[in-house]
Amino acid sequence: MSQSSNQPNRLGEGGRIDRARTLSFTFNGKRYQGHAGDILASALLANGVDIVNRSFKYSRPRGIVAAGAEEPNALVQLGSTEAAQVPNVRATQQALFEGLTAQSTNGWPNVQRDVMSLVGKLGGRFMPPGFYYKTFMAPASMWMTYEKYIRKGAGLGRSPMERDPDSYDHLNQHCDLLVIGAGPAGLAAALTAARGGARVILCDEQEEMGGSLLDSRELLDHQPAARWAEQVVAELAGRDNVTLLARTTANGYHDHHFVTLHERRTEHLGETAPTVNGYRPARSRMHRVRAGQVVLATGAHERPLVYAGNDVPGNLVAGAVSTYIRRFGVVPGEKLVLSVSNDHAYRAALDWDEAGREVVAIVDARLAPDGDLVEQARARGIRIIEGAAVLEAKGSTRVSGARVATIDAEAFTVTGQAETLACDTIASSGGYSPVIHLASHTGARPTWNDEILGFVPSLVKGVHAAGSARGMHDLAKGLADGVAKACEALSALGLSADAITLPQVDAIREGSGCALYQVPHEKPTLRAPKQFVDLQNDVTSAAIELATREGFESIEHVKRYTAMGFGTDQGKLGNINGMAIAARCLGKSIPEVGTTVFRPNYTPVTFGAIVGRHCRELFDPERYTALHQWHVENGAEFEEVGQWKRPWYFPKTVNGKQESLDEAVARECLAVREKVGILDASTLGKIDIQGPDAREFLGRIYTNKWAKLAPGRARYGLMCKDDGMLMDDGTTSCLAENHFLMTTTTGGAAGVMEWLELWHQTEWPELDVTFTSVTDHWATMTVTGPEARKLLAEITDIDLDRDAFTFMDWREGKVADVPARVFRISFTGELAYEINVQANYAMHVWKTLFAHGEKYGLTPYGTETMHVLRAEKGFIIAGQDTDGSVTPEDLGMQWAVGYDKPNSWVGKRALSRSDTRRADRKQLVGLRPKDPKVVLEEGAQIVFDPDHAIPMPMVGHVTSSYYSPTLGSGFALAVVKGGQSRMGETVYLPMADGKTHAAEIVGTIFVDPKGERQNV
Amino acid sequence: MFHIYCPYCEEHREEEEFHAKGQAHIARPADPEACSDEQWGDYLFFRDNPRGIHHELWVHAVGCRKFFNITRNTVSYEILETYKMGERPRFTAEHPEGKPAETVAAEKVADEADMVERQEGVKA
Lengths: 1016, 124
Hints:
The complex is a heterodimer. By secondary structure, chain A is an alpha+beta fold.
């Protein structure tokens, strides 16, 4: 065959590429040409590019080894612009497109001359497993510094530093049968199920569906196998009940047949999604598939042999050679030596020979092989060396020769004199490992099969492996297995399908293979030239042997010590070889050593696909109150409380300068204490409770009494878990005899709702009561301060007389001409009215209040001021002053505990446990810093004796701390061991900066201890 | 991600709609004050962690808000059944293949009588 002029390794004909369409691309700054239908790897090989990368640890030059997802070396960085950067793309999984720009992932200053390779050459033997840990272990504080340089030296690609111009989608899919892999077994399974009428999804990770059929030497119905694949794909594409997903990798198998598929929709067209009719499609889609049953037709990966120098560019797995020749019309060299342990790999030599290039020799580890392919090779006069293997590849940047000798694989010895064969390519095959990754994700441990010399998947219910994926490598059997597995899967779903008529396979007789993983060398493994097991992580046979000598016997430990099977590779090529070597060193069998666990994802998934549309403004839902727009227009700074956006403070601009947080809060606090302020409290949780047993239920769920709360009255209540620890608090009002309105903390609303339902549904189903969340139905506006009554009186028909509408009353009436419930509840310690109106009336009422409020100095305040005001009064915030280890008694709130209630309310029994009765429990107290200018840090630890030797016994911590403009000093709430009996004592707070603050333990109420201001 | 059949909605829904609430069938002592500290501590803090069949309390939190129970194999994660509050599991550690039909029927009669008694207790 002739050559294409500017692509030295491109054949003049053959392959599934379009020679009429030439595409230009750039690799490491140099321009090359390939064809439509190429993958980047085939285009690089066509152009004779040997070195595609530098290795991870030793910076050794590396070339392309495989042709699919299992490629360990050819990791490239894609992208011609910063925003388009994509790291760690396998050149074997990237379709070529016009203008593709790629760079080697590793290599500085470039892959041809690499500074780090000095480490590999000189330091190589000094870099055993654990090298970094052993060398850079001390001092510990320097590790962060070392790590920075080690990562720079080793690195695996880099993320873009600019915003991704593309978009990504998530799709939820449902089907009867999901078939993963569109090779012979997968196509047969999908066709069977599709004709049976089932809803089928068929996905395949490659550019084209067909799997091994695309480069098979076998005939189906006397035609090339690829023809049959094309026909089946065409039929499936025409069926309404089938979804075909090409370029789609099944990356994770999760519980209950939930499988995540990553579909790359535009990555074969350009580095960013091209514009089509003014519309840019999503670059990729994550299909979240919930399948009834799943057929895993994931095929097998060929195992390379482990021999010295097996990482020099020009060493490939045998099947990849066939794939490049037959699918892409590319021969990756001139002179081939093939080292095998089985018949199937002979295809590489036959394909190479047919491509018109020289097969120097086939080196077969077996004696007297006799399958059909062996006979064909013999008939062509190809030299076959039996009972032998390639011991060592010669060459540094490209293979220059192969040292071959007879071996005794069982005894792990070289038995003959080595002969050096001149060649530029060594292909090897040690057998075929079923791709068990997805089955392994389900938690099922694979089992070793001696007949096929590989692990086969164990399967959970509803998962069926078919064909090569369970070691059934024969084409005819694989096709039939696909049909059988589809029928089994459908019948498990109560569906049925007839077996389809399969094409006739012209059988190729293959003899059995022999077990060969690591090839022996004349020198012992630790002294022989490096034999690589895991090329991506630079793990050698010597490293594994050393690990076993150092006492690592579990394969999981060997993996972690040597890094075998780490990284983006997940051990696709190397793991079985590594286990075999560990087994040999430990004197065990492979099944005794076992396999490591494969985890999702099968191949790396771009973050964009994982995130989908859940980014930027759609990252997390935001909840706004009905008054949000007013807050925005009035310059509020916002605080996030759960998903709510609450006004934090309302800075004013004074003399052209915007107030700071402290300045605004001081102004807002004084406005409330001296005039009147208003807070948007709509986010408070509100639960409507109705039913004849509503009152009984409240009595059981709250610590205090509810039996006598009359309609028109409200009460503060504490809610504990059954361990006696406070979980939430709030007021509940009696709306009518069988009707209550409970309020909860903003953050606790959903949890409290679920809590009420839990007790009602599981413990007290006999109580007739219902709960409805009405948080969003009502807007709540707190008007508070000495002028609150005068202001509200202007716009309501409710009698606000202090004796007619007393503290902890609620009244129904009109406010600003709309129906309202007004609660006289105070969280500030001042006269306060909480006005509740239907949410869509809120803006009208709020604005009406402001229209009337100016003359009273009505001031909007936010959550920060609310916190200062409530803390000055010693009002707790559940979740801030409590943390799930604080009882009502620890808070000094015995007044809100009904010890003598008839029922055993939730939390009661636990309050008499020995632990909750300890005198030295941490109890809530007030702290007054000795220096009034000091505002203690929230969370600061408290000690009794600052001169105590370190470690000092820590006796509590600050839970809330603010500057009080009313007091003119800092103040805090804190929990302190036995604090309630330590009033007046001094405690100390040693800070990280070396200072130690002193503070006096005081009561928790700092302002208006008698509570007179709220009762005016 | 689990695929869970809600016995109230009578549909399979995604796990995202549910919250797990721990071991099922933890009976709160009828008279807590009569419990010793140890008995109360057992009720509060001690839970089983079986390998195999486990009964769990779940809530269809963003669906019907109903609590219900799941019998799940903690090794395979297979959900063997879901059942309503007040019902008893058919699959248990003693009956991994399911209880005989007559046992199930007898339990149902007993449970219904118990519920009638509880409701009369409230009225009284």
